[in-house]
Amino acid sequence: MNLHKNNARSDIQLERMNLAENLKLCPFCSKGLIQIHKAPIEKETEAFFVTKNVFPYEGTRVHLLIIPKEHISTIADIAPKHWIEIGELFQWIVKKENLDAGALFVRFGNMHKTGSSIEHLHFQIISGTKTDEEDSEGLKVKLGYK
Ligand SMILES: [Zn+2]
Fold first, then answer.
1. What's the CATH architecture for 39-127?
2. Is the model more confident about 27 or about 143?
3. Which residues surround ligand 1, an ion (CB under 5 A)?
4. What phi-psi label fits residue 115: left (phi over 0), alpha (psi between -120 and 50 degrees) or beta?
């Protein structure tokens, strides 16, 4: 397990990371999802769980995570047959949440370079809009290195 506390975005997130460290549990492995993450599993497939991000990005209405059941930290470790599940889950989320705009992204590798706080690979789906809010603010993209 590897956590990057410098990338925590709030005190409560840091507390959860300390709890994970004390319990020696990865927050995104199955025991950690129950004891640390605590948000319910919204959908499960052969290789993934879908759950809410308990520390949603500012301004998001929807912030869900697709988390591999296996503790992996790189996309190279996703079996080719499981990529289709990611696409199906993404489509399921878009339909379930009635999203007309949003983003799907995944960071991988060196957490000093990605700004990620948890090594366990996770796909993030964010949306800040509702279909009836045409003039809501657009997605703020902070991905980048400058
Ligand atoms: Zn894990």
1. 2-Layer Sandwich (3.30)
2. 27
3. 26, 28-29, 71, 120
4. left
